[in-house]
Amino acid sequence: MAITFNDTNYIYITNQQVVVPPKIVSDTALVADTTIVKANYLTLDNTNTIPYDYYHSVIDYYHSELLSLTGISHTQYLTSYTTSSGKGNPSVHYPTEPTPYVNFNPMKLPSNTGSPTSNAQDSQQKLINDIRTAINTFTTNYTNAERVTGPPLVTVPNPTPPPPTIQVPDGAFSIQADAVDAAVSTFSVRLSSYAAILATLPSSNSGEILSRDTASTQANTTILALNGYLAIPIYGRYSDANLNAVLAAITAQETQNNNRNIEIFGYLGTLSQDSSGNFTGNGYYYTFFIWIDLRINRTVGSLTLYYNTDLVIKFLNDTIAANTRMMVEYSTYATTTALLEDTVVTQIDIRVTSSAGFAAADLVYLCDNTTTVPLVSNTISSIVDANTVRLDVPIGSVLLTNKNARLFKKLI
User: Fold this and answer.
1) Tens digit of pLDDT for each residue in 372-402?
2) How far is it, in rounded angstroms, from Cα 16 to Cα 323?
3) What pLDDT is stored for residue 101 in this prediction?
4) What is the C-alpha separation between 243 and 250, in angstroms, rounded?
5) Tally of domains in the chain
6) pLDDT digits (tens, 9 = 90+) for 281-340
7) Residues 6 or more apart whose Cβ sits within 8 Å of residue 176
8) 306 & 400 share domain
9) Which regions of 251-359 does DSSP assign to beta strands (E)?
């Protein structure tokens, strides 16, 4: 069965042959322009990523400090959450439910404030209490004199009498002494790792640096006291003076830790969000979420805009490809050229975009988008030049270029 078009079909086909090629040209130019825009959005997002990374790193730092201080682990916010949300698909920040977050503002995640939390290790307070308990047990059971001279002798049954009893060093002494040493050593190791964490503070805020330096000085002072105690030979280290020095050091550290804990939560601040997606707060939690929003907000987010240009470029390229295929197909059904000037009824020389593809004696049709069927044919008398064809008889109608006036010949 052959393909057969009526005049109405040809009016549609030839109109497309007039309007689509310029659109392909303009879309191709728009792809180039959008590619430049995309590069600009990437530069903008790279710029926004600088404060984003900074506030993210500060939050992670304070969470790591809290882990050493309190033993509590905070859930880390992952950069991949931002990246996936910036691509515009349903994501952790833009779930399909609840509905407010399918709009423009990203949804606050529990991890934006370090939740959920878990007990990951003993707190420094627990380690301090362990030292106090061990020292209290040791000093309660043994006098200062006994502790500095070594284990006292105790009478026990002789396993190989006679005599029926013998005196041996008190085994409980060594157990309790070792408990003190172990507790002091454990806390010293923890403080050393804590001091290393303090040295990595990424904040450039002078107040935070000063506060950090105070915490670092106290930690190193306590480490020096604890390690100094452990360096004293047995049994001299167990004197009241030496054990009291340990207690004084851990008490000072305890006070500093309590102050530092309050400072950290003040720096981290708060973040809350209402049912409409509006968010409020203070401190690093709030400021970091501002930069998350500035990157993935559905209206102005730099990362969102960057990925949206990919969609625009994809749409334009697919449109260009589809329209190009359309023109190739339509070119097998009709050869069409647009008129350059409106016509008058007596006109025989017709100004066209291009006379290529036409020849003398071709049967042609002239129409615009207001032309009714059936179409009236005419014959080309001659090709005057690259932009002019001459008809056998006057055109007989007024055709308007703003109505896509055109000349065409049917190929099937």
Assistant:
1) 999 999 999 999 999 999 999 999 999 999 9
2) 9
3) 52
4) 11
5) 2
6) 999 999 999 999 999 998 899 999 999 999 999 999 999 999 999 999 999 999 999 999
7) 134, 137, 138, 141, 142
8) no
9) 270-273, 279-282, 334-338, 349-351
Domain that holds residue 391: 335-410
The owner of tokens 């002078």 is: 206
Q: Please state, in angstroms and as integers, the Cα–Cα distance from residue 333 to each residue in 374, 400, 407, 411, following that order.
A: 18, 24, 14, 5
Query: Are 374 and 323 in the same domain?
Result: no
* The pair of three-digit structure tokens given for residue 273, joined into one six-digit string: 């969000």
Distance CA 282, CA 297 (A): 20
User: Do 74 and 211 sit in the same domain of this protein?
Assistant: yes
Contact 370, 330 (CB under 8 A): no
**The one-letter amino acid at 261:** N
**CATH number assigned to the domain comprising residue 393:** 2.40.30
Q: What DSSP string runs through 117-161?
A: EEE-S--HHHHHHHHHHHHHHHHHHS-HHHHHH-PPEEEEE-SSP
- Amino acid at residue number 345: V
Q: Is 311 strand, coil or helix?
A: helix
Which of 225, 273, 274, 217 minimizes the C-alpha distance to 247? 225
Question: Which of 332, 348, 374 finishes a domain?
Answer: 332
CB 219 within 8 A of CB 198: yes
Q: Which residues fall within 8 angstroms of residue 265, CB to CB, at 6 or more apart?
A: none
